[in-house]
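Q: Here's a chain of 267 amino acids. Please give me its 3D structure as tokens.
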Amino acid sequence: MLSEFLESRAIGFKSQNVTYVPVSGLTGENLVQSSAEELVAWYQGSTLLEAIDALEPPSRRIDAPLRLSITDLFKSDVRSQLGSSCAGRMDSGTLHVGDRVAILPGLELATVKALELNGKPVEWSFAGENVDVGITGLDITTLSIGDVVCDPQHMVRMSTRFEAEIIVFDVTTPICIGHPTSLFTQGCEKGASFSKLIATLGKAGEVVQKKPRFLTSGAKAIVEITVEHPLCLEEYKTNRTLGRFMLRTSGHTIACGQITKVKAPKK
């Protein structure tokens, strides 16, 4: 069941890239070394550390436009040069002290005063790094978790509508057009609804049925989702962080997916 979920089109893992490693969080067995007779009797694979060391390092999109998803907002102490600050992961591009940046969806403009990586001041930050950014030129209270720092010349798209491929988890009632839900992405939560059910998909991603009346547990589908307020969005193939999301209803996760097309807001 877990393999089917991880290898689905909505999640995107390939079977050759998935390794299952048994470990014990209580005793630490097979984290660094394996010695328990009960485990050795049926498992001769790698330890968790060996499996991690064998992973290929991901490519970093340094040449792409700047995208930094804000995960925290704070004011640093007197020992730091940051001042009013935001923290987040560099999804793409580079950031340099003195850069002029735009922060969306509020379209705030600011200047990078200082950067800190692992508590140490740096001049540059690159895609893939989690960085603290000291900013000047705006009131930090106007920002929110989930905002995106970007290049003013190449700003991220904002919209309230998008198409996506999703996989539906266990749901108590079928999902129909208009079904209300909460969308979680980039560390924030927004009210949303299913505005269109475009098609259901087979295991290989082929279209099984166009314009289904409803979606049930285990369904894979292409849908259109409308959110209550504009979000910073990009297609999953362009930016994985800004292109994936989860949907929750009544405290339960009902679906997850990846954005395939960002659509213009309805007028």
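Q: Can you summarize the key feature?
A: The helical segments are 2-6, 37-40, 48-53.
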